Amino acid sequence: MIPSSFDYTAPSSLDEALKLLHDLGDDAKILAGGHSLIPMMKLRFAEPEHLIDLNNVPGLSYLKIEGGTLKIGAMTREVETEESADIAVHFPIFADVAKLIADPQVRNFGTLGGNLAHGDAANDQPAVMLALDAVVEIAGLDGRRTVGIDDFFYGFYSTAVQEGEILTEISIPIPSGRSGNAYHKVERKVGDYATGGVAVHLEMDEQGICTKAGIGLTNVNPTPLRAVRSEAALVGTSLDDAAIALAAQYASEDCNPSTDLRGDIDYKRHIIRAVTKRMINKSKERAFKN
Amino acid sequence: MIQCKTSKEISGMGHSMKRKEDDRFIHGKGNYVDDVKLPGTLYMDIVRSPYAYAKIKNIDSSEALKIPGVLAVITGKDLEQYNLHWMPTLMSDTQMVLPVDTVMYQAQEVAAVIATEKYIARDAREAVRVEYEVMKPVVDPFKALDADAPVLRTDKPDKKDNHIWHWEVGQKEETEKIFQEAEVTVKEQMHIPRIHVASIETCGCVASYDKIDNHLTMYMTTQAPHAIRTVFALVAGHVGLTEEKIRVISPDIGGGFGGKVPVYPGYVIAIAASFLIGKPVKWIEDRSENLQADSFARDYHITAELAGTKDGKILATRMKVLADHGYTDASANPSKFPTGMFSIGTGSYDYPNAFMEADAVYTNKPPGGVAYRCSFRVTEAVHAIERITDRFALEIGKDPAALRFQNFIKKDQFPYHSPTGWEYDSGDYEAGLKLAMKGIDYDNLRIEQAEKRKKGELMGIGLSTFTEIVGAGPSKDFDILGIKMFDSAEIRVHPTGKAIARFGTKSQGQGHETTYAQIIAEELGIPAKDIQIEEGDTDTAPYGLGTYASRSTPTAGAAAVMAARKLRDKAKKIAAYLLEVSEDDLEWEPGKFSVKGAPEKSKTIQEIVFASYTNHPQGMEAGFEATHYYDPPNLTFPSGAYICVVDIDSDTFEIKVRRFVAIDDAGHIINPMIAQGQVHGGLTQGIAPAMYEELIYDDDGNILNGTLMDYLVPTAVESPSWETGHTVTPSPHHPIGAKGIGESPTVGAPPAIANAIVDALKPYGITHLDIPITPYKIFKALKDKGVLDKNIVES
Question: Does B589 fall in a domain?
Answer without folding.
Answer: yes
